[in-house]
Design goal:
Elements (H helix, E strand, L loop, with lengths): L1 E9 L8 E8 L4 E6 L5 H8 L2 H4 L4 E8 L2 E2 L12 E4 L12 H12 L3 H14 L15 H13 L5 E5 L7 H18 L2 E5 L12 E5 L5 E4 L1 H5 L7 H9 L8 H18 L16 E12 L2 E12 L3 E5 L6 H8 L7 E6 L11 H5 L2 E4 L12 H11 L6 H9 L14 H13 L5 E5 L7 H16 L3 E5 L3 H7 L2 E6 L2 E7 H4 L9 H6 L7 H12 L1
Parallel strand pairs: 3-8, 3-9, 6-7, 7-8, 13-17, 13-18, 15-16, 16-17
Antiparallel strand pairs: 1-2, 1-4, 4-5, 9-10, 11-12, 11-14, 18-19
Length: about 550
């Protein structure tokens, strides 16, 4: 179905090829998972399948890519639209109409499909993806999972043979991610579609894959059975990493597989009395409060995005804010940084617990800083050097302060690099350095690991721990349960704008099946959240 024959892609002015001598076959009806480090060339490979590379992006494509017998060198994207359906990372960026049903019909209208066929396909797709009840809903009112399923449906109605998905679950809460993955499985098993999916959060999807394609940092590719490829791949989810470190063969791909393989050690640990993991972080009541939210309500018309919420954060704490898409996490952060006005209750931030609403620029940054979900939106200069210099000037900091912070977070970045050419992790580090130059006691982060691979998240975890040790309070809204397991001291869960749980990470996430990390599921009922904790415990009974 999809064939790469000795494909090399080199962009103009790039020192090295993005893809190098790729030979790859993806058979009809397969679900193939594309993995690799951030910036390794995953998006280039995906775009080569529907002809965006090189017809839209430019650059030189050597070799041949064929899809359903069509050569992408001679067939531009418009001539592949009936064969390949592509869903971008942000589904809203691809929507062109106002409602779900209109969006499902639009692609067929562009292809000139007759109205009777269009009507039948729309109804079939609504049923297949569970969208019947929201067919008349405005796209702007949909949850993340509903938007992603609508985007898949919009390309599915054109009756493609191949579906290409770029990080379909990256912005979704665990429940919505399961909805989308269930829909994708139905397409593969019931309709025989060929699906190629790029994803960083492999713990969600690897157990469903027939085929894994791993891109190395030099642009070469290895591919094959999931367990064989992930044994040596540059990235791996926690359950695979646990199998690697324990020497399990074959490697477990799911929580169920891992529980079976580790059963004897779990039972031995339970019999002996499991050694507890490292002591949990404790914050003294004498530690200064830098965020005081009291009976906060934020209304959109008659809808309460945040409802009577009370919360305190102290210096040195890393607090994870979790909940379903639309629960009110971003609204809470925006209100804490003064972007949104509180309708009821009060907010105090910083050492003086000042009201952030109405504060501007550097005055606000003395109390609180926000790194938004799209960190790149805060970058406007032409080079990294210029961004750092502007941050020093705005914060009245010693020249070189921002650059030194950036070097500690992400070493080796060239000063003359354009910020848009940085990887997701580097861009996040640059924005974090800019915010921290003003030394705000409270730092808010909205989905900071979206687009980061596992090594990138490990480095980001180190940065957050360093900030907490330096006395900053960190509050991050995230769906990334693995990040929470390794990073957060405390977890706050909100639903429909209301606080429903607040406590130490090891208590809150283990008690919630939706927000529990992989290792806690594998090692249950033992009190381990991370690979390091599980390996340390098991090593004691292996000897």
């Amino acid at each position: 179905m999809i064939y790469f024959d000795d494909v090399t892609v080199t962009y103009s002015e790039a020192p090295e090829p993005a893809l190098r001598h790729v030979n790859l076959t993806i058979q009809e009806g397969e679900l193939a998972l594309l993995v690799g480090r951030t910036g390794s060339g995953k998006s280039t490979l995906l775009r080569a399948i529907n002809g965006l590379v090189p017809h839209f992006t430019g650059g030189l494509l050597e070799g041949r890519v064929t899809v359903a017998g069509r050569d992408t060198r001679t067939h531009p994207p418009r001539e592949l639209a009936d064969v390949v359906g592509m869903v971008p990372q942000d589904p809203m960026s691809g929507f062109v109409t106002d409602t779900v049903e209109e969006e499902l019909a639009y692609g067929m209208e562009a292809l000139g499909i007759d109205p009777q066929t269009m009507r039948r396909r729309v109804e079939d797709t609504l049923d297949l993806l569970g969208l019947v009840e929201i067919r008349d809903r405005a796209l702007l009112t949909l949850s993340g999972g509903q938007r992603q399923r609508t985007a898949i449906g919009a390309v599915l109605t054109t009756n493609p043979s191949v579906l290409v998905l770029d990080e379909p679950t990256s912005a979704l809460d665990p429940g919505a991610a399961e909805e989308v993955l269930a829909a994708i499985q139905r397409l593969v098993f019931d309709l025989g579609l060929t699906v190629l999916m790029a994803e960083h959060r492999l713990e969600r999807v690897v157990q469903y894959a027939d085929h894994v394609v791993a891109i190395e940092t030099d642009g070469t590719v290895i591919h094959g059975r999931p367990d064989a490829v992930l044994a040596e791949a540059p990235v791996a989810p926690p359950v695979i990493e646990l199998g690697r470190r324990l020497g399990l063969s074959p490697l477990p791909l799911s929580v169920r597989d891992a529980r079976r393989e580790t059963a004897q050690w779990r039972h031995a640990l339970l019999d002996l009395g499991a050694p507890p993991p490292a002591a949990a972080h404790e914050t003294s009541s004498a530690t200064p409060i830098v965020a005081d939210v009291a009976n906060l309500s934020v209304l959109y018309g008659n809808f309460a995005a945040v409802a009577d919420l009370t919360l305190r954060v102290r210096r040195g704490e890393i607090v994870a804010l979790m909940g379903r898409n639309g629960a009110g996490k971003s609204t809470l952060l925006n209100t804490m940084v003064g972007v949104q006005k509180a309708d009821r209750g009060r907010i105090g931030v910083g050492a003086e617990l000042a009201d952030p609403y109405g504060m501007q620029g550097q005055e606000l940054l003395k109390h609180v800083g926000l790194v938004p979900q799209e960190a790149g939106d805060m970058l406007y200069a032409q080079t990294v050097e210029a961004e750092c210099a502007a941050a020093d000037h705005d914060a009245h900091a010693t020249p070189g302060t921002t650059r030194a912070l950036l070097e500690s977070f992400a070493p080796g970045i060239d000063d003359q690099t354009h910020p848009r050419d940085l990887s997701e992790g580097q861009r996040l580090s640059l924005v974090l350095a800019i915010v921290l130059t003003a030394r705000p006691p409270l730092v808010l982060l909205d989905e900071p690991t979206r687009g980061l691979d596992y090594p990138g998240k490990a480095n980001f975890t180190r940065v957050l721990q360093q900030l907490a040790d330096d006395g900053h309070a960190i509050m991050l809204a995230t769906h990334d349960v693995e990040l929470v397991a390794t990073t957060a001291h405390r977890v706050v869960i909100i639903a429909d704008g209301e606080l429903v749980a607040d406590g130490p990470t090891e208590e809150v996430v283990v008690s919630s099946p939706m927000f529990a990390p992989q290792i806690s599921k594998v090692m249950r009922p033992l009190p381990y959240l991370t690979v390091d904790e599980a390996v340390a415990g098991i090593s004691g009974v292996q000897q």
